[in-house]
What we know:
The structure is a single chain. By secondary structure, the protein is an all-alpha fold. It has 4 helices and no strands.
Amino acid sequence: MKYPTREELLELSNDERLQLLEDVWETLDHERDPEPIPEWHKRIIDEAIEEMERNPDDEGVPIEEVFARFRAVRR
Length: 75
């Protein structure tokens, strides 16, 4: 099977690329069991829940600030 190159994909319109993504998505086995969640992910989630339970009145960080932090890290 020959896969298209990046250059070939960029020759397609946005609509054509979206259609390609949809076509591929439909071929995936959506019935299979999901990948197991790594233990370190579970620990992070547990820590976040514990922090929220210790400080229920804390409003957290505004979403705009979260996005700004992500953008700063990506640079």
